[in-house]
Design goal:
Chain lengths: ~210, ~210
Amino acid sequence: MEVLVPFSTESPKSRLEPVLSERERRDFARAMAADVVEAIEAAGHHPHILSTGQIDVDVPVTVDERPLTDAVNARLSAHVDARGSDGGPEIAVVMADLAIATPSVLERLFETPGDVVIAPGRGGGTNAFVSRHPGFRVDYHGTSYLDHREIAATVGADVCVVDSFRLATDVDEPADLVEVLTHGDGRARTYLTDVGFTLQTTDGRVSASRPE
Amino acid sequence: MEVLVPFSTESPKSRLEPVLSERERRDFARAMAADVVEAIEAAGHHPHILSTGQIDVDVPVTVDERPLTDAVNARLSAHVDARGSDGGPEIAVVMADLAIATPSVLERLFETPGDVVIAPGRGGGTNAFVSRHPGFRVDYHGTSYLDHREIAATVGADVCVVDSFRLATDVDEPADLVEVLTHGDGRARTYLTDVGFTLQTTDGRVSASRPE
């Protein structure tokens, strides 16, 4: 299956600004994306990066400068057109910052039956989905998980939900680095430890920090 | 299986103070615990509340004023003593604030084989586990997920991990209320909507809020 991986080359991961420099945020975002691409390949599928700008990687890349929703919908439409509007094979979208996704949890997503299979993200988001319905389109603004369920219902697509902590964990904020250090085992985790991050416990709560 | 549900009657859910009054936090904590107890029963198991103070519920309650780690370890030891140190039947611990846990995800936890089966929580925590090993004990301070893996290894218990967003979601902070409103369907969600909370989207990010 083709698996789109949206990636932003412009000031990625801006909410990590309190703990990572601009250069570090760029490198960390690329490390996470490389982990995601590798996990998709290890799960036996075909990653295709949907990037806002040029990026040098070994997998197919489509550059589309438009906002996420428009760029993904253009690819979903192109997929339906290429296959015929009777639906045709499935397609998936997996966010590039799912730094603790593993091949086995991605397999669980890809193998779950349903016209639309959604892996919710924290905060009402949609971190990954599979579409097997020609009419399904996305709207990533706001509570996209609820909106995607509604869009699926509108086009008559049934929805299945994959309950996965690893797929629900997109890495946006400093607190999310704790998940990478605790549960990660790829480039993203190595990047954080290389630049000095460790887990710290203060008053029973855990944070990821490095010496000033 | 006996499923311990630790519950604090003293100033519960203090990190929700910015959005809920003391009385509301108490009522909301009880609504979440009632949902968890009901989900455990619906999954075919026997909830047993381990409370820091008296609480009026229809399931067995043990009052233990000690800190969480000591109180849980006392019950684990008592369980082993009652059954004989050859191991005996399994026992589980499920946190009382897993407001979006469902019977089916709890079944997934309870039915996963392994001497120790852990459902990690966000921030390095341990939100639920099953122990089938007489030597396993807990340490909830800090990165308990990693510590519990180490404790299991020390006593020769193999560990399985259950990857569940619903079990990883303990409700501690205002941002967590978004998950209850988005994915919940029990008393906790009803409580929040009854006191006026709705999902709001600002700059593409979702929060749970109510009129001032």
